[in-house]
Automatic annotation (TrEMBL):
Pfam families: HTH_11 (PF08279), WYL (PF13280). It comes from Pseudomonas chlororaphis O6. This is DNA-binding protein. PROSITE patterns: WYL (PS52050). Keywords: DNA-binding. InterPro entries: CBASS_pafABC_assoc_protein, HTH_11, WH-like_DNA-bd_sf, WH_DNA-bd_sf, WYL_dom.
Amino acid sequence: MSRTTRLLTLLQVLRGKRCPVTAAALAAELEVSERTLYRDIAELTALGAPIHGEAGIGYVLRSGLFLPPLMLNADETEAIVLGLRYVDQRGDEVLGKAAADALAKIAAVLAPAAQEALHNPTVLPGPPAYCYPENVVPLNVFRQAIREQAKLHIDYADVNKTPSQRLIWPLALGFMNEARVIVAWCELRDDFRTFRTDRIAAASEQGQRYPGRRSDLLRTWRQRMQLDDAGRFTPDKN
């Protein structure tokens, strides 16, 4: 294995690890000595790869990794382009701009062989099929509350336009075909609920963080809905 291939493989291995992994385990997986592994990690870190390591715990690749050339083949490039095009169509203004910025960054580092798949893909998302209802509360209010694990007090109206006031723990925003929704734990119902954002007349933070970890709550919701980490339906096989 060439040095360049070994470095790229090391990045790929770290990208697939959700928890810190020891130098010994990485060296064994790559079939190199620990001395070589330490040298490779030092070189990748010097190049800007956000690798974090702690003695006795191991190494983990933090978010924000650059995409060096040759990392994406034609199929991977088209998958990313298709996904970003869908985001541009179905996301709000913030996500649309983020998708365009991400695509520009990817284009800047793609190898020449992958540029054709970027500019002339074989797959297209098609035109948007629905005009989303207008939101009274900006989606950024929900984004901020989700990231901060902040409780939100909302004024909500159901499908029959019956008003209610809820104290929710916002977990995620969903972009459906016909509406945008917020997945949350509802204190009034003592259960998970999904609220259409266009039916929320007002939302305000209560200065309180909800207990536990958002990731754990979201995992429980996915299990309840029989969804995997990518949001795909996984019916019970029993």
